[in-house]
Amino acid sequence: MVFTGASIERSVRGLSVSKVELTEFATTLWDRDDNRNATGDLLLDVGNYAGTTNTDQSPNNLFTKVSNSLLNGATYQSFLKLMDNYNPYTMQLETTSAKEDAEENDFIDAIMETRVMTYTLNFLINKDYVSSSTDLKAKLKNMWFKLYSRKTSYSTIDSSGFEHTFVGEIDSGSQKVTGFHNWVSFYEKEAVGEVNYYGWLSNPDPQLIGLSFTFHGYYKSISSLWVGCSPEFEMAMFTVCFMVRPNQNCNFAIDGNSMTIQTYTLYTDESLVGSAYPVA
Questions:
Q1: Longest alpha-carbon distance in the chain
Q2: Average pLDDT, 10 consecutive residues per value, the chain (280 residues)
Q3: How many CB atoms lie within 10 A of CB 273?
Q4: N or C: which end of the chain has fewer CB within 10 A?
Q5: Residue 251 phi, psi dihedral angles, 5° rounding
Q6: Do residues 252 and 18 touch, judged by C-beta distance below 8 A?
Q7: What residues form DSSP beta bridges with 259?
Q8: Can you give the chain as a three-state secondary structure string?
Q9: pLDDT score, position 206
Q10: Cα–Cα distance between 36 and 269 in angstroms, integer?
């Protein structure tokens, strides 16, 4: 089943969740994000407006500083270990080794120890989306890390919700970048020259930016990043919106700032994440 349209207020997966409740959830989650950046942890050079010309309008890197103290946190370290587990090109077989499977489990275990995920767990239990911590862990593992075929035109197991959303992919057909909505992944790849920042497209909030860039030389005309929030915060917000607003806008506010997350289920299995991103 595919859900479309703002008039749909109830998901078959659990109880109805209102925009007011999502705002209360998101605001509390933001306040409990102990691992998001503090003053001085990040410095950005947003450069120039990128436009639609597919040319680099900003000669400098987007990230000019990210403190080691931030990246050395347990959830960041376990997140970063996942970055080299994927082949970015679609239509090329993805497999999960025993080591990579353990790294996925370690990441889930690490984020589940945070106040962000404790609050998320309680919220989802109260709304009948999960029954326990064990149930949430199993759902996170399945919805984000289960491998699948990105398109119906071929059967190659080449993607996952996590790879698409957090790591980024290169569509072997269109030769364009798809997904790629995580600032830590962007910083890590920019630092080694895999990403070239072209410029900003929108910057409605200091920690939310619309931008264009290349990844391995392939173009992403528009993307969006939440900048500075922890891996667990993004996982929590994307997961909750995926559960309560699948295939539609998930609208809420944080500290009076209106925000939207768009999620999509996989075309063949609505329990799996096809994509998730903040709308900038």
A1: 50
A2: 30 79 97 94 94 93 96 98 97 97 98 98 97 97 97 91 98 95 98 97 83 97 96 98 96 93 95 96
A3: 26
A4: N
A5: -100, 140
A6: no
A7: 252
A8: CCCCCCCCCCCCCCCCCCHHHHHHHHHHHHHCCCCCCCCCCEEECCCCECCCCCCCCCCCCCEEEECHHHHCCHHHHHHHCCCCCCCCECCCCCCCCHHHHHHHHHHHHHHHCCHHHHHHHHHHHHCCCCCCHHHHHHHHHHHHHCCECCCCCCCCCCECHHHHHHHCEEECCCCEEECCCCHHHHHHHHHCCCEEEEEEEEEEECCEEEEEEEECCEEEEEEEEECCCCHHHHHHHHHHHHHHCCCCEEEEEECCEEEEEEEEEECCEEEEEEEEEECC
A9: 64
A10: 32
Which residues are annotated as catalytic? 164, 181, 220
Torsion sign over Cα 269, 274, 278, 280: negative
The reported pLDDT for the residue numbered 12 is 42
